[in-house]
């Protein structure tokens, strides 16, 4: 059973690859979805965030006020590190539980961990394969502006806040180039799937 880490910068096409692998039968564990779950109202993680960052990062309905928290930690490496110390252990524990559950159900299943912050948080975990979705910065900027409606300054800030592409590419076992057409991205993903199931 391969345990695959799938990562990539913002607007790199990672979600397209994850969806395609799921269509083939992979169990995709989404790190971002787990982050939202472990920070849900009433959770120990949310209580700790309020303790560390103050009650004004909690919205009136008791949920995390993501924009308020983002504004607090964005551009402040020390505060971001504090936030990661609160959130990452809970995410690690829950993702591991899901890996184990998927493998218990079918030991031959392919498990894909869709994780934006692999380089920052989990590069040393025992992955069988690290797959990086990659498109040049200018192409990702175009996608953020045209497809997600960000202005250029905001788009550049989002990309600049992540680790440089070189660091992701340096840990890759497989790079899927998403700068071409959707068909080309899917063809590379299909080839990856064939490689995974023939192991």
Structure, described:
With 199 residues, the protein is an alpha/beta fold. 57% of the residues lie in helices and 12% in strands. It contains ten helices and five strands, in the order βαβααααβαβαααβα. The protein has helices at 14-24, 31-38, 44-53, 66-73, 77-105, 118-122, 137-146, 152-160, 165-171, 182-197, and strands spanning 3-8, 27-30, 111-114, 129-134, 174-177. A five-stranded parallel sheet has the order 2-3-1-4-5, sandwiched between helices. Helix 1 (14-24) packs across helix 10 (182-197). The termini are close together. The model has no long low-confidence stretch (mean pLDDT 92).
Mean pLDDT over the residues: 92
Question: Which sheet architecture does the biggest sheet show?
Answer: 5 strands, parallel
Structural class: alpha/beta
Number of helices: 10
- The best one-word shape is globular
| Order of helix and strand elements from N to C terminus | EHEHHHHEHEHHHEH
Count of individual beta strands: 5
Summary tags:
globular, 12% strand, 199 residues, five-stranded parallel sheet, alpha/beta, 57% helix
What's the structural blueprint in terms of helices and strands?
Elements: E1 3-8, H1 14-24, E2 27-30, H2 31-38, H3 44-53, H4 66-73, H5 77-105, E3 111-114, H6 118-122, E4 129-134, H7 137-146, H8 152-160, H9 165-171, E5 174-177, H10 182-197
Parallel strand pairs: 1-3, 1-4, 2-3, 4-5
Helix pairs in contact: 1-10, 2-5, 3-5, 7-8
């Amino acid at each position: 059973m391969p345990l695959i880490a799938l990562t990539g910068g913002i607007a790199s096409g990672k979600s397209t690859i994850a969806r395609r692998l799921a269509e083939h039968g992979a169990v995709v564990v989404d790190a971002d979805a787990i982050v939202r779950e472990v920070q849900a109202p009433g959770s120990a993680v949310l209580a700790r965030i309020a303790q560390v960052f103050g009650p004004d990062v909690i919205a009136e309905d008791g949920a995390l006020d993501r924009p308020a928290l983002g504004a607090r930690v964005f551009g402040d490496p020390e505060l971001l590190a504090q936030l990661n110390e609160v959130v990452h252990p809970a995410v690690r524990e829950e993702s591991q539980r899901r890996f184990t559950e998927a493998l218990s159900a079918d030991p031959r299943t392919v498990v894909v961990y869709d994780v934006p912050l692999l380089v920052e948080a989990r590069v040393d975990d025992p992955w069988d394969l690290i797959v990086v979705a990659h498109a040049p910065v200018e192409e990702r900027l175009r996608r953020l502006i045209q497809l997600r409606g960000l202005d250029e300054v905001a788009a550049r800030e989002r990309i600049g806040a992540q680790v440089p592409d070189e660091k992701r590419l340096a840990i890759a076992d497989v790079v899927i180039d998403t700068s071409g057409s959707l068909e080309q991205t899917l063809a590379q993903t299909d080839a990856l799937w064939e490689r995974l199931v023939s192991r």
